[in-house]
Each structure stands twice: as C-alpha cells, then as structure tokens.
C-alpha cells in the first residue's frame, strides 16, 4: 500500500473510534479531549508513515519523533485547558439558572453569553407576564364580585318575599338580565384574550373592504351612542385588505365602544378609513379629554387601569377591550397605537393593504 493509503486508513479508523467514543460521552471536557487526541493521532500516523516510507533513520528520525511528541503534548494540554474552561463557565451558568438568578453572568464565552442573555430576557418576559396575570386575576375578581353581589341580593329579596310588588320585581328582573349580560361579556373577553395569549387565535382571511367594515361597526355602535347622547361620524375609502372580517370588526368595535363610553354627552366619536403609504389605516377619535403621556404606552396592556376616568364602569366589561384589539391587529401583521389629539384621543390601526 502507498503511504497515502496507510495514512487514510489509520486516520479513518481513528476518526470512527473518536465518533464512537463521543457518542457515549456526556461532558464537554471529555469530548474536546477526544477531538484533540484524534487529531493528534491522525497527524502522528501520517508523520510516522512518512518516516517509514522515506526510511528516515538515526538522529533525523529521532528528532522528528521528539517534535511530534512535544506537539502532541502541547495539543493535549491546550485541549484540556479549553475543555476545563468550557465546563467551568457552563457550570457557572447552570448555578445561576438553578439559583433563580435572573441576571446573566458576565465574562462567559460568546456562545454561552448569548444563551445567558437570552435566558435573562426570557425570565424578564416571564416575570412581566406573571405580574400581569396576577393583576388581571385581582382586577377581574373585583369586577366579578360587584355584579355577583348585586345579583345575589336581588334574587334573595325576591325569594324571601321582601320584594313582592310587580313593578319592583320587574325592575329587579331587568337589572338581573343586564348584569348577566355584562358577566357573559366579561367571560367572552377573557376567553378571547386567553386564545390570543396562547397563540390559538385562528383567522379566516378573505378580501374585504374597509368601507364595509366601518359601516358594520357604526351600525352596531349606534344604539350605545344614541343612549349616551354621543354623535357618530364616519368617512371611509374603499380600501381592500386581506383580513378576518369578524375578528377585525370586533377589534374596531372595541375601540369605538371604548370611545363612546369615555366621550361626554353631546360629544363626537369619529371613525376614518383610508389608504396611505401602501397601508390601510383606521382612525378612531373620541372626546375623552386626553390621557397622560406616561400612560399612553401602557394603555393596551392587560389589566392596566391608568387614570380613574378610564377604568371600567358599571356599563363596561372587564376592561380588556383594548388588549383584545391589539392582539387581533397584531395577528393581522398590523400595528395599533394611540395619541392625544384635540379634545380627546386618536386610536390608529395600520394594516397591510391588499394588492
């Protein structure tokens, strides 16, 4: 066999042996050392085969062997040092995670530092979500107790015979119906929000026009606006979008209903739809008097109350409408925001336009 064939066979066998060994190993240190040993043995086999093939003897052959031995020892030492550092830093990261330390340790190798920074960001998101969940549970529990207490009091009054005249009984029945519808709306909102947060919101997209969406939303909101004494004004261009009509109508309806609730009587709520910069825009304006600038970025957060003027009232649900609207809009690859404008606020939805 030629020298090349001999080297190839020896190196191949050494590589296969190294792969077999690493498949059984469970520590980074051992794997790095095996890689170094395989590389050194492959090099050594080539040099030895070269010495034998070229019949290098005497001092020259001994010198080559000594050089190979020294190089191998240095290579193994470097591999051991590298493996030791990788294991040490990995264990430092493991201890930080096990101890619940949400601050990523510094000075790690680049790859481990990237993992540590990602874990720190994930922990931060988890803490924020957990805080929002606790706040939401406390908020919804409070908003559920109020109508339930009223329902219990009215039912007990009717059952115990405290209220017997037909007029009062009829009024109690009407109030019970209103409270039951309010509770049903709160449960629907919670269910929708849970689907959004779980990524289970399924959209049935179709080509729709924003003008039809605006018309349907205005028709649905008209009774509430009339009862509140608020005037509705709308203008819409026939802008096409690829969207789930039902979901998008709910998001837009939440904004309009929210605007009506916080606009005083004789005020105006506006709804506009148009195309600009290769996007479809929906704008809802109200007369709420404005929102503190510090509260604007958090207005769509779950369970964010803000100033008392915008907390859920007796005519509202759990105050989740804005969070649901954001989830639906973002599911359509759109954005939603709010700015103070004139006598109130302007909510802005931006959606990709259909081509």
Automatic annotation (TrEMBL):
InterPro entries named among the record's database cross-references: BphY/WalK/GraS-like, HATPase_C_sf, HATPase_dom, His_kinase_dom, HisK_dim/P_dom, HisK_dim/P_sf, Sig_transdc_His_kin-like_C
Gene Ontology MF terms in the entry: phosphoprotein phosphatase activity; phosphorelay sensor kinase activity
The Histidine kinase domain, residue ranges: 139-355
Keywords per UniProt: Kinase, Membrane, Phosphoprotein, Transferase, Transmembrane, Transmembrane helix, Two-component regulatory system
EC number per UniProt: 2.7.13.3
Catalytic reaction(s) noted: ATP + protein L-histidine = ADP + protein N-phospho-L-histidine
Matching PANTHER family: PHOSPHATE REGULON SENSOR PROTEIN PHOR (PTHR45453)
Protein name: Sensor-like histidine kinase SenX3
Organism listed in the record: Nonomuraea soli
